[in-house]
Amino acid sequence: MKSTDQPAPANRMLSDYLCFAIYSANLAFGKAYKPILEELGLTYTQYITIIALWETDHQTVGGLGEKLFLESNTLTPILKKLEVMGYLERLRDPEDERQVRVSLTKSGRRLREKALKMDLVEATGLAPDEFAKMQKAIVTLRNNLIKSVEDGE
């Protein structure tokens, strides 16, 4: 990876690091989501898995993992737990037995009605246009970092 950053001054503070700002914002999101997730009985990772399935149901485990940026060894226990909770089912693809497809159950689809009433947009203190710009900028940052790592391999 090449860096175009200037050398960091010796007195650089933790709050000056973009990576720390993103890390601590992620922690703050976790705290803000906590009451919502407790009401749904889900962890954050389970919640985003359900959201990804609301978006596109009947996905392969591999495709779902790519969408969520999760490795199979992380995603599989999440899917097993959600299956035990009655929110999804995993079935071998009849056309390709090597693939496992994940589909929401009626209970998994019904969670959406409850979850859509729970929104953190207002909690961010951002106007709708600022929120959209921030989300887009963070996605761009993430994609650039992923590309940088892949280019360095």
TrEMBL record:
Family annotation (InterPro entries) = HTH_MarR-typ, MarR/SlyA-like, Transc_reg_Sar_Rot_HTH, WH-like_DNA-bd_sf, WH_DNA-bd_sf
Q: Which GO terms describe its molecular function?
A: DNA binding; DNA-binding transcription factor activity
Report the residue ranges that make up the HTH marR-type domain in this protein. Answer: 15-143
**Cellular component aspect of the GO annotation:** cytoplasm
Extract the SUPFAM superfamilies matched here: Winged helix' DNA-binding domain
Positions the record marks as coiled coil are none
| Keyword list, A-Z | Cytoplasm, DNA-binding, Transcription, Transcription regulation
Q: Name one GO biological process term.
A: response to stress
What is the annotated localization of this protein?
Answer: Cytoplasm
Please identify the protein, giving its name as recorded. Answer: Organic hydroperoxide resistance transcriptional regulator
Organism whose genome encodes this protein: Paraburkholderia sediminicola
